[in-house]
UniProtKB/TrEMBL annotation:
Protein's UniProt name: Odorant binding protein 4
Organism placement in taxonomy: Eukaryota, Metazoa, Ecdysozoa, Arthropoda, Hexapoda
Family listed: Belongs to the PBP/GOBP family.
Species, as recorded: Sogatella furcifera
Predominant location: secreted
Listed GO MF terms: odorant binding
Annotated keywords: Secreted
Amino acid sequence: MCCDLPLVYRGTPELFKACREELGFPDHKPPPPPPSSDGHGPHGHPQRGMCVAECLFNRTGLLENGKINKEALKKALDEYLKTDGAWKDVATTTLEICYDAQTRGDFKPDNEKFTSGSSEFLKCFTRNLFMDCIPEKWTDSEECKKMKEKIDKCPKMLPPALFNKRPH
């Protein structure tokens, strides 16, 4: 792991599981789909992430009337960072950047069903924290430097830590 990211808005494992169950998603990873006839396998299920993000944000009060609630985001961030104060400045700035981008309409929902912007906000927040990782949480290696360069060149790419860590 290149950056030990705080997974602020990810919910508890129980909440994550409850959302997956509510949405009818299995609690385990399904086997990979067979490749398509053109040799390229189909893309995964990006809707799952959007569904789960919206469910988590709804259940934790981060959405109000289908919109991201900035005050609730700040409160959740402050509560989470009580035990990880090293991230406070970077995370607070990142919250402002991603919230402002979301409310300006810079994020276009990837799906007509999930228009709250919770998934887009979460992606922005995680990506920006990774790119501005604080020194004491960063692994200074060639592999991590290359990963950061790659993510910098690919604006929609997310850090691998997002997929490797379970919420706590």
